[in-house]
Structures are given as structure tokens and as C-alpha cells.
Design brief:
This protein has a 6-stranded parallel β-sheet with strand order 3-4-2-1-5-6, sandwiched between helices. The protein is 41% helix and 16% strand. Helix 2 runs parallel beside helix 3. By secondary structure, it is of the alpha/beta class. Helix 4 links the parallel strand 3 and strand 4. The structure holds 3-methylbut-3-enyl trihydrogen diphosphate (2 copies) and magnesium ion (MG).
Length: 217
Amino acid sequence: MPLNHIAFIMDGNGRWATARSLPRTMGYAAGLDALKRVIAQCAKRDVKVVSVYAFSTENNGRPDNEKRAIFDTVKNFNNSYDGEMKILYMGEIDGLPEDVADSVRYVEDKTADNKGLILNIALNYGGKDDIIHACKLAWDHNDFTVEGFESGLASCGLPALDAVVRTGGEKRLSNFMLYECAYSELFFIDKLWPDMNEDDVDAIIDEFEGRTRKFGK
Ligand code: IPE
Ligand code: IPE
Ligand code: MG
């Protein structure tokens, strides 16, 4: 079965910086470099959609300087992006600082007709919030079928989530794509996100291709 849609929980940026005696905020720029390497290799391996967890609803509890460093990284990426990917966001974008929200709208609009890999970025995103939102829509439309419910999720329109990868050594989902991962293959990697490279992506995809997915049958 091909790997159409892979998601990355990009954890370990702060620890990567701390290990180099750098401020935690420096880990996010290094994380962006890793993201570019990972996406390029995913595209080479014919993955269609890459979802990434960039900022959770719970991350709002982080110190202001750390949040600003994450948002600036996202903003710089958005405002300078000039490639073939179609870039989408999921999460409460209106709840972000105005300059960040503007950059999100700008890049979504700019890449809307692009035909390359889809990069789906979870920003100010929480899986619980997304499910509650979908419930409200299902109620409004009086449609409680699986298809009807799924049309209310932020991931609506994307292919089924085949695999979830978490770097940084923790074995948890931290409120990421809780509904979508029902039958995803899970990968937990000890490496910190900024250390991820093309070989790591190849190893994940090779292992995925070797796994037997049964879907309960
Ligand atoms: C994950 O990296 C990315 C975000 C939360 C934005 P962390 O900042 O959680 O890095 P660690 O896990 O503390 O090393
Ligand atoms: C998950 O990492 C969120 C992102 C990678 C954006 P966290 O570092 O916030 O998760 P916990 O706190 O270890 O569960
Ligand atoms: Mg973390």
C-alpha cells in the first residue's frame, strides 16, 4: 500500500538547542531546515501529503519569547515561500497574532493552485478542538454519518493518514490528529527533530512498506 499521507510531530527542537548551549528559541530555525530536508525526501519518495505539527493549542502556555520565535519561523517561511508545494494550515488561525495570521493567508492564497506535494501545517491546532468543531457542524447539518462527520474536520479532503512519526523520544500524540490516526502506522524516533535527514525519511518509508496493515480484517 503506498504511503500517500505522512504526519510528523516535530518534537525536540528546544532540547536540540539546549544541548548546544544555545537558547531554546534557536532550535526552531534549525527545525525549519530539517523540515525542508524531510519534505524534499518525502516528495522524492512520491508521498502526496505531509502534515506537520508546528504549534499546539497547549503550546500557548509557553513563554512569550518562545512563542514569538516559533511564530517568526512560521512567518518567515510563509512570506519567503516560492516553490511548487500547495501549503495548507489547520488550527485556530484567527487566534494567532495578526502578522502571523496574515502570513498564513498569504501563503495559502499564493500556493492554492500549485500542483506539487501538499504541506499541511497544524498551527494553534488541537485534535480535541477539531473533533468538537466537527461535532457542531454535524449537529448543524444533522448528518452523523462517518463521511458527514469527516467533512467537518480540518483534514477534510486530504487522503487517509497512513503514518504518524514523532521525533524526540516521547511516545505520545499530544493532541495531534486524534481522529485521523485511527489506523495510522506509528513511528517513535529518538532523534531530535533538527537532526532529521533524508536517510531517516527513507528508513521510515522503507519500514512502512514492510509493515502489514490489517484494518481489523
Ligand atoms: C516541538 O519542540 C515544537 C513545538 C512545540 C513548537 P519543543 O519546543 O517541544 O522542543 P523540546 O521537546 O522541548 O525539546
Ligand atoms: C507537541 O510537542 C507539539 C508540537 C510538536 C508542535 P510538545 O513538546 O508540545 O508535547 P508534550 O508537551 O511533550 O506532550
Ligand atoms: Mg516538546
